[in-house]
Amino acid sequence: DQQVKQNSPSLSVQEGRISILNCDYTNSMFDYFLWYKKYPAEGPTFLISISSIKDKNEDGRFTVFLNKSAKHLSLHIVPSQPGDSAVYFCAATPVSARQLTFGSGTQLTVLP
Amino acid sequence: EPEVTQTPSHQVTQMGQEVILRCVPISNHLYFYWYRQILGQKVEFLVSFYNNEISEKSEIFDDQFSVERPDGSNFTLKIRSTKLEDSAMYFCASSERVGGSSTDTQYFGPGTRLTVL
After folding, report:
1. Nearest to residue A33, comparing CAs of A20, A47, A19, A44?
2. Per the omega criterion (within 30 degrees of 0), is the bond before B2 cis?
3. Do B102 and A95 touch (CB under 8 A)?
4. Residues B31 and B69: beta-carbon distance below 8 Å
């Protein structure tokens, strides 16, 4: 089951630079997308979401972009901070449903 | 800030034993969920629960699993006869409602690590 894919298992960036995490999906029924951050031995922490009626949503240093025609979304973190180092999961769901389908995650490391 | 809590943080059990994992969702939330993550794999949906009944369940959620809201605050996942392959992190989540707005965001607890020996 590869309905949500995060093709980069890891990403390293310098502190202060932009981090771009990518996610692709195949299920055209998905129309609500979320990014979660996860530290070891903790549950996923909600970061930001976007519905399919938008192509961009910002919250502070975090911006999510959605390209529906390409079935692609990305999370931009600017500027990146060492505390952002964590695993980032993309998740998707149809509006009418209640189950999130997760990607495999990307380990972000922000180097001081 | 309100948060989802889960107990215990780690549960060790023998194969074939019953376990109950407990969760306290955020107080004004109406929808409750269980997910699991086997080591090295994706987070997977198990079940959603609303108005005292199951809304959706995945094919993982077979007859050995059950959920219950025994009182106004707790939400439990019971595994009747545990198997080695049930070893995983189990996450509870809750959301205010569903419908594609910010109030539908699912907030996760810290998880219970279940180890089946």
Report:
1. A47
2. no
3. no
4. no
B91 touches chain A (CB under 8 A): yes
CA A31 to chain centre: 14
Using CA coordinates, name the residue in chain A closest to B88: A41
Is any Cβ of chain A less than 8 angstroms from the Cβ of B108?
yes
Within an 8 Å CB–CB cutoff, is residue B103 touching chain A?
A: no
Q: How far apart are CA B21 and CA B19, in angstroms?
A: 7
Chain A positions touching B100 (Cβ under 8 A) are 31-32, 51-52, 95
B17 touches chain A (CB under 8 A): no
Q: List, for residues A49-64, the tens digit of each pLDDT value.
A: 998 999 999 999 999 9
pLDDT tens track for A81-111: 999 999 999 999 987 667 899 999 999 999 9
Amino acid at site B67: V
Q: Using 50, 70 and 90 to split pLDDT, how confident is the model at B73?
A: confident
- The terminus-to-terminus CA distance of chain A in angstroms comes to 37
Measuring CA to CA, which residue among A73, A97, A76 is closest to residue A7? A73
The pair of structure tokens assigned to B82 is 């545990």
Comparing CA positions, the residue from B33, B29, B3 lying closest to residue B97 is: B29
Given an 8 Å threshold on Cβ–Cβ distance, is B110 in contact with A42?
A: yes
Residue of A4, A46, A50, A98 to mutate for B, most B C-beta atoms under 10 A: A98
